[in-house]
Write a structure and sequence with these properties.
The chain is of the alpha/beta class. Helices cover 37% and strands 16% of the residues.
C-alpha cells in the first residue's frame, strides 16, 4: 500500500520515477475512503484539487524537495484558500467559512509542491483532549475504536497512524500534538514557541499555541519542520533564529549525551505499564552511550492550575471575534445587538468553549485579575526557570506523554477536570515555550470486547529553547534501536 510509505521512502521513489505523485495521492484517497468511515479523522475532503496538484508535481518532474508530491492533511484550524476551515465548530460550520488566503504553513508547503488532501478533525477550536467536543463527532483510535485518538489533534494523529496520509499538520497548546501522537503510536513534534508561524491558524491561546507536525518517523518530522520553520513577517512572535537542516544532525547518535528523568513526571496513579515502557526507553539510551540523570522540576505540580487560568483568559479574548456579524453562524435578528451576540454564541459555541470563555472572563475581571491571572503568570515564570536550570545540566529530558494509554470514549465527558488532567505531563512544556517530541516506546496490554489488545505508549523528549535538533537527534537514535514506530494498527 503506497500510502504506508514514509516521506523519505516516497521521495526516493518519486525521484527515480518508480512512483508518480498521482499514484501516491490516489493511494491516500482510496485509503481514506476505505477506512475513515470507522475513524472519523477527515472532516473536509479536497480530493479533486489534490489530484490536480499531484499532476502538476508530476509534470514538473524534478522532485527536488523531499515534500514535492507528498500528500498531507491539515488540522481544521489551518486556513487554506478555497477550502472550508471550521475549527470543528458550529459557529463556522453553519455557513462553511472558506478562507480567501493561505496560512503561512500551508503556503510554504504549497511552495514545496506538497499535496493537500483536506482537513482533519479536532476538538472545537482545539479545546479538548479527545476530539469529543468537535461538532463532527469524535475521532476513534485506529488501535481500538472504543477509545479516543487524543486531542485536540486527534484527527491528524489517527490519519497518520491509519496511513491515510504521509504526514499531517497539528497545533499544540498544552499537548495537542504530543498526546494524540502518543495515543495513536505515531511521531508528534511540538516546536519552540516562535519557531513556526501562527499566521492563518485559528487561535485558542496566543501565547501558547505552537504549529507542529505528526509523522510516521522522526526523520519525516525533521523534513517537514525544515520546510515550515522560520521567521514570518506576518507573525511578530516568530523568532529570527536561522533554520538548520534538521536531517543533517539526525545520525550523530547520543553517545556522551546527558538525558534527564524528571521525578515529577513519574507520579502516583499513573499506569504502571506506561512507567515501565518509559524507564525501559531510558535503558536503551544507556546502551547507546547516553547518561541518565535524575532531575527535578519542582513547580511542575502547579502547571495544570496555571495553564487553566492562562488559557481560558486568552480564549475569552480570542473568541470575541466570532460575533455572527462578519462571517459564520447567524441567527434571526433580535431587538438589540447584545441579544444578537448572545444568541449567536449560545447556539454556535459548544459547552467547553463556553466554559473556558466564562472562566477566562472571570479571571480577567477587575476584582480577580491580580488573584488569578497575574499569579498564574508569575508561576509560569517559575516553571520556565525550572526547565532552564535543568538544561544547564542535561541535554534533554525524557518523560511520559500521558499517565495512561488512550482512554475510553465518554470516560471523561461528564468530568471536565479529569479531562484537563490529561495535559498533566504536556502543559508545562507549553508554559515554558520549549520543544517536545513524542515517539512510540511500547504497548500496554488492555482488555477489549474481543479479548486482550494492545495500545501504544508514547514518551516525550524535551529540549531547551530552539533545541529541536537535540530532541530530533535523540529521538532518531532511539527509533533506530527499536521497532515500535514500525507497528501499524489492523484496519479493515
Amino acid at each position: 500500500m503506497l500510502s504506508s510509505l514514509t516521506i523519505a521512502q516516497a521521495h526516493e521513489r518519486l525521484k527515480n520515477k518508480s512512483l508518480s505523485a498521482v499514484e501516491l495521492a490516489r493511494s491516500c484517497i482510496e485509503r481514506i475512503e476505505s477506512v475513515d468511515t470507522s475513524l472519523n479523522a477527515v472532516v473536509h475532503r479536497n480530493f479533486d484539487r489534490a489530484l490536480e496538484e499531484a499532476k502538476k508535481a508530476d509534470k514538473k518532474g524534478t522532485f527536488d524537495h523531499p515534500l514535492a508530491g507528498i500528500p498531507y492533511l491539515a488540522k481544521d484550524v489551518f486556513c487554506e484558500e478555497g477550502v472550508p476551515t471550521t475549527a470543528c465548530s458550529n459557529i463556522l460550520k453553519d455557513k462553511d467559512f472558506i478562507p480567501p488566503f493561505d496560512s503561512t504553513t500551508t503556503k510554504r508547503l504549497k511552495e514545496k509542491s506538497a499535496v493537500s488532501l483536506g482537513k482533519t478533525n479536532t476538538d472545537e477550536f482545539t479545546m479538548g483532549a479527545s476530539t469529543e467536543t468537535s461538532c463532527y463527532g469524535v475521532t476513534k483510535n485506529p488501535w481500538d475504536r472504543t477509545r479516543v485518538a487524543g486531542g485536540s489533534s486527534g484527527g491528524s494523529a489517527a490519519a497518520v497512524a491509519a496511513d491515510e496520509c504521509l504526514f499531517a499538520l497539528g497545533t499544540d497548546t498544552g499537548g495537542s500534538i504530543r498526546q494524540p501522537a502518543g495515543f495513536c503510536g505515531c511521531t508528534g513534534l511540538k516546536v519552540t514557541y516562535g519557531r513556526t508561524s501562527r499566521y492563518g491558524v485559528l487561535s485558542m491561546a496566543s501565547s501558547l499555541d505552537s504549529i507542529g507536525v505528526l509523522t510516521k518517523t522522526v526523520e519525516d518530522a525533521a523534513i517537514v519542520l525544515g520546510a515550515i520553520a522560520g521567521k514570518d513577517p506576518l507573525d511578530a512572535t516568530t523568532g529570527g533564529m536561522p533554520v538548520p537542516d534538521y536531517t543533517q544532525t539526525l545520525r550523530k547518535g547520543v553517545k556522551g549525551m546527558k538525558i534527564g528523568l524528571p521525578k515529577e513526571y513519574f507520579i502516583k496513579g499513573m499506569d504502571p505499564q506506561v512507567e515501565t515502557a518509559v524507564r525501559a526507553a531510558a535503558k536503551v539510551y544507556v546502551s547507546l552511550g547516553a547518561t541518565i540523570v535524575d532531575v527535578s522540576l519542582p513547580h511542575s505540580p502547579y502547571a495544570i492550575a496555571t495553564y487553566y487560568v492562562i488559557v481560558p483568559s486568552e480564549v475569552s479574548s480570542n473568541m470575541a471575534r466570532y460575533d455572527g456579524v462578519r462571517f459564520g453562524h447567524t441567527v434571526p435578528e433580535r431587538d438589540s445587538l447584545i441579544e444578537y451576540y448572545e444568541r449567536v454564541r449560545s447556539s454556535g459555541f459548544g459547552d467547553e468553549v463556553k466554559r473556558r470563555i466564562m472562566i477566562g472572563t472571570y479571571a480577567l475581571s477587575a476584582g480577580y485579575y491580580d488573584a488569578y491571572y497575574r499569579q498564574a503568570q508569575k508561576v509560569r515564570t517559575l516553571i520556565k526557570h525550572d526547565f532552564e536550570q535543568a538544561f544547564e545540566n542535561v541535554d534533554c529530558l525524557l518523560a511520559p506523554v500521558a499517565p495512561t494509554p488512550a482512554f475510553k470514549i465518554g470516560a471523561h465527558t461528564g468530568d471536565p477536570v479529569q479531562m484537563y488532567l490529561e495535559d498533566i505531563f504536556t502543559a508545562p512544556v507549553n508554559l515554558a515555550g520549549i520543544p517536545g517530541l513524542s515517539i512510540p516506546c511500547g504497548f500496554s496490554k488492555t482488555v477489549t470486547p474481543s479479548g486482550v489488545g494492545e495500545l501504544p505508549v508514547g514518551m516525550q523528549l524535551l529540549g531547551p529553547q530552539w533545541g529541536e535538533e537535540v530532541i530530533l537527534r535523540a529521538g532518531y537514535a532511539y527509533e533506530q534501536a527499536t521497532e515500535w514506530h514500525n507497528k501499524r494498527p489492523t484496519l479493515s
